[in-house]
Design a protein that fits this description.
Elements: H1 3-7, H2 10-19, H3 24-40, E1 50-54, H4 60-68, E2 77-79, E3 86-91, E4 96-102, H5 111-121, H6 127-146, H7 149-152, E5 153-158, E6 171-173, E7 180-182, E8 187-189, E9 192-194, H8 196-202
Parallel strand pairs: 1-2
Antiparallel strand pairs: 1-3, 3-4, 4-5, 6-7, 8-9
Helix pairs in contact: 2-4, 3-4, 3-6, 5-6
């Protein structure tokens, strides 16, 4: 499928609407989600049928949520702060999981693009430089959307190691700030119940090493 066709597809449009703009990072997440879902032969998850793991908080993570239906709120979207463009998807019913990770040279920027990117991020780019940067970004996005999945991702079957489904947890009031907090995240500080920030502020230097409330 040509990049122009993909850019006008309904699925990608939804990703752009959710994320706010089109960019190479969102394209990576979109292609990752499509690749994972195609390899697993699954559709978007209305509940917790699927489990997604993202190893980056970059733009691509938004596309994973939109495409797979895995979200923080449902408890089937797990973020690991590894700084990698790597994404995994697991099918709970079949106990099968696949991981894709961006290949090192898949979308590498040349020195000119890198220089322009730095200027844009620092708000130092001229109108002409900003226009050039946007053209570069559009070209990179197009390449990502048109490339074969194997040329941009390392694709591998992985051990599912699927955690249990999210549980509804009762809340109790923190004795320090008075805010309701998930019971399993409360800590005991000098006999009082403390939420995570209050435990860090009022407890010993070890913070969360303090005993959890029974």
């Amino acid at each position: 499928m040509k990049g122009e066709t993909i850019l006008s597809s309904r699925d990608l449009t939804k990703c752009v609407e959710f994320h706010g703009h089109m960019c190479p990072g969102l394209a990576i997440g979109f292609r990752a989600a499509r690749t994972l879902m195609d390899r697993l032969s699954v559709r978007r998850s209305p509940d917790e049928e699927l489990l997604a793991i993202v190893e980056t908080d970059a733009c691509g993570a938004d596309a994973i949520q939109v495409m797979t239906g895995c979200t923080f709120g449902k408890g089937n979207f797990i973020f690991k702060n590894y700084g990698k463009h790597a994404f995994s998807l697991a099918d709970r019913k079949r106990g099968k999981a696949i991981r894709v990770s961006l290949r090192p040279d898949a979308v590498k920027m040349d020195p000119i693009s890198l220089s322009l990117s730095e200027k844009v991020q620092k708000d130092e780019a001229s109108a002409e430089e900003l226009a050039r940067f946007r053209r570069f970004q559009k070209e990179r996005t197009q390449k990502i959307l048109e490339a074969d999945a194997e040329s941009i991702f390392k694709i591998e079957d992985i051990s599912p190691n699927i955690p249990p489904k999210a549980m509804i947890m009762e809340s109790e009031t923190c004795d320090f700030c008075g805010e309701p907090t998930k019971k399993d995240l409360l800590r005991k500080i000098n006999g009082k119940k403390a939420c995570v920030p209050c435990a860090e502020e009022n407890g010993p230097s070890v913070g969360l090493a303090s005993s959890p409330c029974p």
